[in-house]
Amino acid sequence: MTEGGNRVSIEAELETARREEPGRLAGPTIRVMTRQTEDQSEAIAPGSEEGSVAVDFPPEEVVFDLQSLSCYYGDFRAVKEISLRVPRNQITAIIGPSGCGKSTLLRSFNRMNDLVDGARIDGRVLYHGVDLYADGVDPVEVRRRIGMVFQKPNPFPKSIYDNVAFGPRVAGFRGNMDELVEQSLRRAAIWDEVKDKLRSPGTDLSGGQQQRLCIARAIAVEPDVILMDEPCSALDPIATLRIEELMHQLKENYTIVIVTHNMQQAARASDLTAFLTMGPDRAGYLVEMAATDQIFTRPRYRLTEDYITGRFG
Amino acid sequence: MGIRSQALRPSELVEQRLRGGRTDWPGRLVAGALLLALLISLGILLVLLADILLRAWPVLSSRPLDFLTSPLSARPATAGIVQGIVGSILLMAFVIGLSLPVGIGAAIYLEEYAHDTPMTRLIRTNIRNLAGVPAIVYGLLGLAVFVTTLGMGKILIAGGLTLAVVVLPIVVITASEALRAVPNSIREAALGVGATRWEMVRSHVLPYAAPGIFTGTILSLARAFGETAPLLMVGAIAGTFSATDPADMLTGSYTALPTVVFDWSGKPQDEFRALTAAAIVVLLVVILLVNATAITLRNRYDRRW
Q1: CA distance A214 to A211
Q2: What residues of A are in contact with residue B209 (Cβ under 8 Å)?
Q3: Neighbours of B175 (CB within 10 A)
Q4: Taking the model in full, what pTM does it have?
Q5: Mutation choice for A interface testing from B193, B304, B305 by most A CBs within 10 A
């Protein structure tokens, strides 16, 4: 728990529970799969069970466990039967060609797609073992714990201060707001640039600064996870690099899932990479997920290799 | 290359080519036609305004205050429009009090809460159609519902309710448009940090849409101010019998500025021409002021974000 925190994060609660009662939370619900038998030359059909569940972690490290997740917009299936796991305090990148459902997939992690009329899912999104789409789960609580940074920087047309303070305010934060705002801006590596103009509009900042402001806004509510939907696509290379450095600092405290178009970015900034592509029905599916250096040096599938070497997509 | 002529230096050649020699006749023609359209519409307006001002001049110059504060009268020399002004103000109070909260509320529900279903689309289309219904039809509705069925009689409250119904669809439409102009990324940003739908609407969508909502609704107010036909249907009395006291007007006979204009324009005496014109000038000035308020409010809010 960091100073000025207004609530105990789920992660912290779990940590305490694990210390007090080892074994209770590390239940057998999550299968641990091994891949020793895997043969690089053997052609496993992409999207098959074995290809989909590619990376394994100790169960207590798993933050998200997607089980055969399909996302629909009306009748159109945008994402098809994806199963993958996201470990905590790591940066997981989701890469793939345009329109393969990366953003849709990411937005199912915090129920952002609820806002789209006609959007629905099949399968399960387990967050620390709890299905986020189960009856009675409050999407507002979900989003409070699983924050999001969007493709286009979207600061509120309000002061920099109010941008950061809005989330804690609606969360009922009672502590020292000035401190929390400063701390969030510091952690987003933008404090020095804005400390003298906290009352000026967030929309007056440059694109890169706006995006860091949005990151500060996301971390001000002390989430466990930060989802980033192509956070650098509207930024220049220097601003991009700053965001990547920032992600690297942030992963100490947060689990980060980032969708990116930019393969160099995935290679530079992430620990794990999931590669999605789309089938003839335009539904995105998971080709493989593995440690980032493995994906970029010895991918299991031809499709992945073609994509990362720039032969398609 | 063959293009370069020996007599010309390269820069001269380039200059010659860049200057071109063609005149864009179709372009000029279109620009001219557009300018003409603008001049015609402005010209007609100016002629009308000048004509009204000229006719109103005898009254406005000789007894401007007296005209505003005197009661209606059959004697042109002393006739004023105080009942019309008071009645119109009271009617506007009804329109503001009823159609703004209801209309803006309906718009917020439609834009921020309702899902996009065939039903909501039908409702939306119908609201647009309602905004296009001639006001006299609302007058008939007001007569049937407020005056007769609800037994209010031809009182100002019935007139106020009728006018509120006239502008309600316009308020819904303009407020909807203002809400829709707030980018979705703002909504996602608010929900993304754990705001509820209402917190999102209250703290972000509404404040950002407020300038548009204000402008739109105040402009619809200006329309209600000038509306005559529905008021005639629900019994705004045009003659000199309407009450002078605002309190009496609420429950008794009443009139409004446009109704006065309508009545006076039909009077046979020549003097009433000038009086009619003067009343029209007052009406126009009020509408101008209302619109100016709308624009000022919008500009002030615009600067805030």
Answers
A1: 5
A2: none
A3: 28
A4: 0.80
A5: B193
